[in-house]
């Protein structure tokens, strides 16, 4: 059976609007489809950043007041998030943020490892010089954020780095698959931050992957991404 995971107080920092999946509120109240999209993106961002904690009940009226939106777009957003597995809508009980399971994340890591290895293989063969420049700029932005422990910005940067590798693979199906896996794992990324060395390790691992890609060294790139994912697995198991 899956082991439900409780969020330990202080294990993740609250993410500001700069976090991944963030959407800035409009200056004037949006209409129709824009309200639905705003509700969806804002609730999803807060779930991903563990602002809405695993297992926490969500109230449509309170969400509407928090986001300055009516109940209809909130209701529609919650049903969309239920399809994605981020919330559970229970009869006579209301809405809950889907609890986290160690078994679930280990299953996702297993699938991710196979596909990330394929992705770096293709990227080493197909990447353009501009792809490497974009990846280098992303990695170079990390040290200052690590120094200030800007967790939200680092989470966004981590996603951006992996999406850049996916883009360099020139395989859109693979890129979409990996984007979905990274989004599903985002909450575990925040939970892993209780380890002080974790952020520096991620930076070092990104450097190793990028150095191998720039050399177009396929075996080294495959080994670097495998170690990166294995370290994430080990960190999650230690943390949880």
TrEMBL record:
GO terms for molecular function: DNA binding; DNA-binding transcription factor activity. InterPro entries: GntR_C, TF_FadR/GntR_C, Tscrpt_reg_HTH_GntR, WH-like_DNA-bd_sf, WH_DNA-bd_sf. Residues 33-100 form the HTH gntR-type domain. PROSITE patterns: HTH_GNTR. This is FCD domain-containing protein. Keywords: DNA-binding, Transcription, Transcription regulation.
